[in-house]
TrEMBL record:
Protein name, per record: AAT family amino acid transporter
Ranges that cross the membrane: 20-43, 55-77, 89-108, 128-149, 161-183, 203-224, 236-259, 279-299, 311-330, 350-369
Keywords: Membrane, Transmembrane, Transmembrane helix
Domain of life per record: Bacteria
Organism for this UniProt entry: Rhodococcus tibetensis
Length: 384
C-alpha cells in the first residue's frame, strides 16, 4: 500500500495507449449513475420516500467519508485486503454505512440529550450539523498525516499496519478535537456569543486547507513539501507540510472568494451576503472530487512529461474540471436533476452534499471495489 489518497493505486507509468481514458470514463459513468440512483433513493427532496435532506443525510455522508479515511488511508485497508472482490467492496460499504449511521444517531440522540447543541430536534437540523462539523477538521488532519506526512513518525518507529493507522487515528484525534472545540463548535453553538469565526468562514477557510492537502499531497506528489527533506528527513517534511498547508490553504481561500463571486454573479453574491465566505468550500469540493477521481480512475495523468510539467498539467486539468462542475451543478443539476431548493437568485443546492456524495461513491467503487467489473479494461499501472 502507498500513502496516497488512492491507497490501492499508484501513478501509472507512461504508456501511449488511450485505454486509461476509456477506463476512467467507464468508472465515471458507474460512479455518477450509482450516486444519482442512491441520491434519488435516500436524499432527493422530491423523489426520496424519506425526509433526510439535507440533514441528517449530509451528516451521515461526512462521517462515512471520514470512516473510509480511517480504514482506507490511515490503516490502508488492513484486514479488508484479505478479501476477494466483490466481498471486499461489500465489507467496506457495509461497515462504512453502519459507522456513519451509528455515529450520526448517537451524537444527535445520545449526546444531544445532554447538550442541546447536538440535539436531533434542533431547528433546521443544526444539531446534526454541529456534530458532523468535526469531520471538516478531520479531513485536514488525518488526510495530511497520510498524504503529506507519509505516516510519520509511525513508519520510522518500525510499526506495521494496522498499528500504524490505529496510532495515527488516536494521536491525531487530539489536535483535531482541539480545532473543533476552538473553531468549529463555537460557530454553531447555542450558547457561544463571540466565536473566533462565523460558521461560513470556518467552512470556507478550513476546506481550503483540505484542498491544499489533497492538491500538494496527491496531485503534486507532495511537492513542494518533499524538497524539505524527502525520505531522509520525514520530520522536516511533516513540519513544512503542516505550516505550508495552512499558508497555502489560506491563500486559496482568499483567491477563491472573488473567483466564486464572479462565477455566481453580483446579484447572487449580494443576496448571499456573508454566506459567500463558505463558497470557497463549495468550489473546493468540486476540485477535491476531481483530484481524487483523477488519481484513482485516470491514473493521475500525465506521467510521461518532465516532473514539473506533469504536476502543472494535473493541477490545471482538475481545477478546470472543478470550475465546469461548479457551474453545471449550480446552474443546472442542483435544480433540475437533484431537485434541491433555491439558495440565492437562480442558485440551487449545496455542493458539499452531492459532490461529497460523488467523492464517497468514488471511494466505494473505484477504491473499495477496485473498479469491479471494469478491471479487464484497466491500463497497465492502474492498480491491483
Amino acid at each position: 500500500m502507498t500513502a496516497t489518497l488512492s491507497p490501492s493505486r499508484t501513478s501509472a507509468p507512461a504508456d501511449r495507449s488511450r485505454s486509461w481514458v476509456v477506463f476512467g470514463l467507464a468508472n465515471l459513468a458507474v460512479v455518477a449513475t450509482t450516486a444519482l440512483a442512491t441520491w434519488y433513493l435516500l436524499a432527493d427532496p422530491q423523489i426520496s420516500p424519506w425526509n433526510f435532506y439535507p440533514l441528517p443525510f449530509n451528516a451521515a455522508l461526512f462521517w462515512a467519508i471520514l470512516f473510509v479515511v480511517y480504514i482506507g488511508f490511515n490503516c490502508e485497508f488492513a484486514g479488508f485486503d484479505r478479501l476477494g472482490q466483490p466481498a471486499r467492496g461489500l465489507a467496506i460499504l457495509g461497515t462504512t454505512a453502519a459507522f456513519a449511521v451509528a455515529v450520526t444517531w448517537l451524537l444527535a440522540n445520545g449526546l444531544g440529550r445532554l447538550y442541546p447543541d447536538f440535539a436531533a430536534d434542533r431547528a433546521d437540523g443544526l444539531g446534526y450539523f454541529a456534530g458532523a462539523l468535526f469531520v471538516l477538521f478531520g479531513f485536514g488532519t488525518w488526510v495530511m498525516a497520510v498524504l503529506n506526512w507519509k505516516h510519520w513518525p509511525w513508519t520510522v518507529l518500525g510499526l506495521r499496519q494496522p498499528l500504524i493507522g490505529l496510532c495515527e487515528i488516536a494521536f491525531i484525534a487530539v489536535p483535531t478535537l482541539a480545532l473543533y472545540l476552538v473553531l468549529g463548535l463555537p460557530s454553531v453553538s447555542l450558547t457561544a456569543t463571540d466565536p473566533l469565526m462565523p460558521v461560513d468562514t470556518v467552512l470556507g477557510w478550513f476546506y481550503s486547507i483540505v484542498v491544499s492537502v489533497i492538491l500538494t499531497g496527491q496531485t503534486l506528489d507532495n511537492w513542494p513539501w518533499r524538497i524539505f527533506g524527502g525520505d531522509r528527513n520525514p520530520r522536516a517534511v511533516a513540519i513544512a507540510s503542516t505550516v505550508g498547508n495552512v499558508v497555502l490553504g489560506t491563500t486559496i481561500y482568499f483567491v477563491m472568494i472573488p473567483l466564486v463571486e464572479a462565477l455566481v454573479g453580483s446579484a447572487a453574491t449580494a443576496e448571499l451576503g456573508g454566506v459567500i465566505h463558505q463558497f470557497p468550500a463549495q468550489l473546493g469540493v468540486c476540485w477535491a472530487f476531481w483530484m481524487i477521481f483523477w488519481a484513482n480512475a485516470f491514473g493521475n495523468r500525465p506521467t510521461r512529461f518532465a516532473d514539473g510539467v506533469n504536476l502543472l498539467l494535473r493541477a490545471a486539468l482538475t481545477f478546470g474540471f472543478a470550475i465546469v462542475t461548479f457551474l453545471v451543478y449550480y446552474r443546472l443539476a442542483a435544480e433540475h436533476i437533484l431537485h434541491e431548493p433555491v439558495v440565492a437568485g437562480d442558485l440551487h443546492g449545496n455542493a458539499l452534499g452531492f459532490l461529497d456524495w460523488l467523492v464517497l461513491w468514488t471511494l466505494f467503487y473505484v477504491v473499495g471495489f477496485q473498479s469491479f467489473g471494469l478491471r479487464r479494461w484497466a491500463p497497465a499501472g492502474a492498480g491491483s
